Amino acid sequence: MLDYRIGTFLVLYETMNYRRAAQLLQLSQPAVTQQIHALEREYGCTLFYYDGRRLLLCLPQRRGPRRPDRGADRRHGGAGLSRAGLF
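The structure assignment produced for this chain is given below.
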């Protein structure tokens, strides 16, 4: 069974508004905020952020090492060197 907080996330994602999500879920706005913060702590990432007054979904971040830039050796005159000089 899905965690009730996932349902809260989905409603917030659809409405992109904490107040409207709270109304649809018949919860208080602080309860919706607490559930989203609990998900963020559990998964170790930020789910939503504000750009001014607009609520936006955070894009997933790449994890792990960055791949070397394939064109770096031509641009920088190195033999297989990336911008960081590691490859």
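Interim note for the steering committee: The chain has a mean pLDDT of 80. The longest strand covers residues 48-51.
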